[in-house]
Write a structure and sequence with these properties.
It is built from five helices and two strands. By secondary structure, it is mainly alpha-helical. Strands 1-2 form a two-stranded antiparallel ribbon. About 11% of the residues have low confidence.
């Protein structure tokens, strides 16, 4: 994996490579988060449910932003300790770190309209096996294994 190669570069002990690899790790988390947030919502959702979906998705991918922030902070700290002054990586790492901190701060207080839409939503968000599952409250319940319970006499 790309992250595995970057981690091996950090472990080699070359400070310049470690700073570049640390920046790339932060960038991987940051880019994955951005791609997930830019993806269209599932088809068939009305505007209210799409807003609720986006609100929950932002909550779920927040961990990727915090991992990117950690990677950028550690990269900048290592560069400072070791005297690495590669402007390409350090300037980009600092800019990305500042941007993500602003995003996290803005997402800490979601707009009231998003909260209201989520609360009015007929959809229930459940966590089964570390995945996000959307299901309508009008359907039969989904079990923890993801299958629907069968009732006798129905097919």
């Amino acid at each position: 994996s790309a992250q595995g190669h970057d981690l091996r570069a950090i472990r080699m002990g070359n400070d310049r490579w470690a700073v570049a690899a640390g920046y790339r790790i932060g960038e991987l988390y940051d880019e994955l988060r951005a791609q997930l947030l830019d993806a269209p919502p599932p088809p068939g959702l009305d505007e209210e449910h799409a807003a609720a979906y986006r609100t929950e998705l932002r909550r779920q991918v927040r961990v990727l932003a915090t991992k990117a922030i950690t990677a950028y902070e550690q990269t900048l700290a290592r560069a400072s300790r070791s005297g690495v002054d590669d402007v390409r990586f350090l300037a980009d790492a600092q800019a990305s770190l500042d941007r993500l901190k602003q995003v996290i701060a803005a997402e800490a207080r979601p707009p009231a309209a998003s909260i209201a839409a989520l609360m009015r939503s007929r959809f229930v968000v459940g966590r089964y096996d570390q995945t996000m599952v959307w299901r309508s409250t009008r359907t039969r319940p989904v079990t923890a294994a993801g299958s629907r319970p069968t009732s006798s006499g129905s097919s």
